[in-house]
Amino acid sequence: MRVGIIGYGLAGRIFHGRLLKAAGADVVAVVTRNPQRRAEVAADFPSAACRDDVAAMLAHDRLGLAVVASPTAAHAEAAAECVRAGVPVVVDKPFATTAAQARDVLDQARAAGVPLTVFQNRRWDSDFLTLKRTIADGGLGHVIRFESRFERWRPEVAPGKWREELGPDQGGGTLLDLGSHLVDQAVQLFGPVRSVYAEIAARRGLAADDEVFLSLRHADVHSHLSCGAIMGSPGPRMRVLGTKGAFVVEDLDGQEDALREGLSADQARPAIARVLADPSMTPVPPVAGNWAGYYPAVLAALRGEGPLPVDPADVVHVMEVLDAAREAGATGEIVHL
Question: From CA 112, how far away is CA 88, in angstroms rounded?
Answer without folding.
Answer: 10
